[in-house]
Input
Amino acid sequence: MKIYPPFLKKIKEGINIDKDKFNNSQFSNHSEYNIIITFKNTNERDKFLSKYNDLRISAQFSRIPSIVTNLSRKEILNLKNEEIVLQIEEDQEVFLSYLDAIESLRLPEYQRNQIVYTGKGVNIGILDIGIQGNFNSNSKRFQEKPYSVKKLKDFSKAIQNVNITHGTLLANIIKSNFIDEEGFSNALAPDSNLIDLTISTKQKSYHISDLLKVLDLIDKENPQLDILLMAFSTSEASDGKDILSKMCNLLTEKNNLIIVAPAGNTGPQESSIGSPGAAENVITFGALDKNLSVASFTSQGPTLDNRTKPDFYLLGSKLIVPITESIQIKSSGTSLSAALGAGIIALLKEYNQELNVDEIKRILSKYSSFLNEDVRTLKISEIFEGLGLFHEPIFSLRYLYRRSLWVSIQIIIILILLFNWKLIYNLIKLLYGF
Output
């Protein structure tokens, strides 16, 4: 079948996805859809474009030869018999996987990190709508490296003084300059390098094709990413065979890239995992609430082809994230869980840079905890204890600082006595007259 099955079902039922209307009486063969057409290779794509030279092409991609265009229902159904077409699917809208963000007054205990690995030397790309440098709580250590491709413009610049972007929120979960009263960082990977992969679009909505543009550029430019955190998810379920899932699978195989994605926020119904979370090689995270129960908004598995997803669950409901010393954000969504997951994986990548996605999954699965039959959660201490690498401090850093100060004073006193004992002896002798 040339037409992606979920999409074929919709157009046969007369559902206009873009307009989100289910009114069959107004539907006709002339209703149009934004679609992605995939080909086996670039030669067959070029043949298709020569044959249909009147098509309005809005984008082309190289890693998976494909085009983005707009066609009517009738035209789409006619193309399913075209031999050189591999697959036709909807250019679905994708959504940032968070629910809300409001100011709060406290910092999360969850983000405390007492292990020796801090993500040093690990490059984490955040595919979102921009990381605002002036709102980043890690401004002193934050190595912001905007992806220097002309097509990727910084969406956040125009709104830096108005709103805090979703990408900034995720950046502060992974990397933060805040230190608690015991001297520990509130971030999971405070020494990692964050690379801002910003989606640029004139519209306020985002589509699969927008993500594919960035992924195609990553494939061409090879910006030396270790981890890619994708903050988006489709609202419609996937079997992992859509073009976005396929592209993610290819990048993990070619570049040893670890891709992390949210499950999505379309729960609690079963089989609601969207793309790219449904991709086999993507590590997908669902959200837990403060009681360690699966959050009601989390998209549920299995995938449409009956695979277990999400892979793991982490806190993602009403997390409190420090942005500046005076601003903390309380937010919910599976993208926050995915950011926590990316931070944990960064620690493993520092431990062993050569770990691939399958090895990462095996380690996380081996040392995960089951909340029930299909729900695995992670604890950093248990992972590194299992690897024989976790060393919990006996004393807090504040205690050690105070202790070292007192020891230093004692050493200074001893040195003074040692090198000036005659002077001190004569002074005492003079004072007491003996």
About this structure: Confidence is low (pLDDT under 50) at residues 17-27, 102-113, 137-162. The longest helix spans residues 397-419. The CA atoms of residues 170 and 339 lie 6 Å apart. DSSP finds eleven helices and 18 strands in the chain.
